[in-house]
Amino acid sequence: MLLAAFIGITVGYFLQPVYELFLSLHFMNISIPMAVPIVVLLTPQFMCWETCRAEFTSVFKKPLPIILTISSNWIISPLIGLLSANIFIPDNIFYRIGVSILFLGPSVSMVLYWNKIAYGSKYIVIGVTLLNTILILTVYPFIVFLLVEGIGAPVLLESVFFTLLIFFLTPFILGLILRYIFKNREVNRLSSRIHKAADKISLLAFFTFLIVLYIIQSRNIFSNFSDFIILAVPVLFGYLLVFAINLAVSFIARLGYEEMASVVIIGSGNQYELAVAASTIMFGVQSAVTFTVSIAPLLEAPIMILIIGILLKIYRLHGLDSSISNYKK
User: Fold this and answer.
1) What 3-state DSSP class applies to 106?
2) Are 103 and 81 in contact (CB under 8 A)?
3) Alpha carbon of 121 to those of 69, 250, 269: distances in Å?
């Protein structure tokens, strides 16, 4: 992530023709260079859902981890994001909106990789991802609208729905269509190859998105570097506080390792790609809100690596290495 950010900022700042080209490629406030990798990033995730139907239905036999994770994603995280914004940057309305939006959308993409690295429950991550997708498509626009209006910036509800239509519903439909196509017995071999390549395609799209994002934001970052550093404080504070709450709640609930790891990882993850898309459509690609949201990719990887390291260390100290190694198998 840091490498992608470095490449994007360097190219955007020192190669003005590239910067101006990426900035000019837009349609109705939609940055085309950012929209394409986001759609490509999310499509393989939705494509694989039907394969995991058995895992999804089995997760509801133990609903507590699901309830804890959904509560963290849609209640705890948004409240902490709003609290953090008001504590650290009370005087700038657009910076407050940017930080608050970051904590609204739960992750349904990179969280799958973090959960795998942490040896979390594949049943929980599939179940929560599907439920979060449904909530994003139905509840997210109204929450964003109420949040932005409550902070004091006028915004059209239609623009939030348009964000979901382009950046979320499109890959959702594409994923289902591709899954239906590859169910055909005549393309089973091709389907197998596609599924094996899905992770690589998603990661490539993810890093492409980051490079494009920082090419577009490069000059804003150089011009407002001190603000960029200051904005890292409320975001970092919010991430760590959400993590601490999820970890404490998981201990209190006496969850097993796999369940706890998934609750902590998924409950602490945010879909900043969706936040970037929403801020771009509502306020513009070079707005202060989008500038604020762009800090998140630089912080997520170090924070998630720290969280995973803490989880593994804690449970090794509690003698649960066997449960981890069994999950790896």
Assistant:
1) strand
2) yes
3) 12, 14, 15
| Lowest mean per-residue pLDDT among 127-131, 158-162, 309-313 | 158-162
Phi/psi class of residue 119: alpha, beta or left (left: φ > 0; alpha: ψ in -120 to 50)? left
pLDDT, tens only, 200-223:
777 788 889 899 999 999 999 989
Q: Is 71 helix (H, G, I), strand (E, B) or coil?
A: helix
Predicted TM-score (pTM) of this structure? 0.83
The secondary structure of 108-142 as a DSSP string is: SSTHHHHHHHTT--HHHHHHHHHHHHHHHHHTHHH
Tell me: the pLDDT tens digits for 309-318? 988 887 777 6
Alpha helices in 224-256 (DSSP H): 225-252
Q: Which two tokens stand for residue 313?
A: 């260390």
Give the distance from CA 47 to its chain's centroid: 18
- Read off the DSSP letter of residue 27: E
Q: How far from each other are the two terminal CA atoms of the chain, in whole angstroms?
A: 29
- What is the three-class DSSP state of 270? strand
Q: Please count the other Cβ atoms lying within 10 Å of the Cβ belonging to residue 184.
A: 10
Q: Which domains does the chain have, with CATH numbers?
A: 2-328 (1.20.1530.20)
Cα 151 to Cα 32: distance, rounded to the nearest angstrom:
29
Cα 124 from Cα 255, distance rounded (Å): 12
The strand pair at 26-27 and 30-31 is best described as antiparallel
Evaluate whether 19 touches 219 at the Cβ level (below 8 Å): yes
Which residue spans within the chain are E strands per DSSP?
A: 26-27, 30-31
Q: ∠ CA(51), CA(34), CA(273), 5° rounding?
A: 55
CA 324/CA 329 separation, integer angstroms:
9
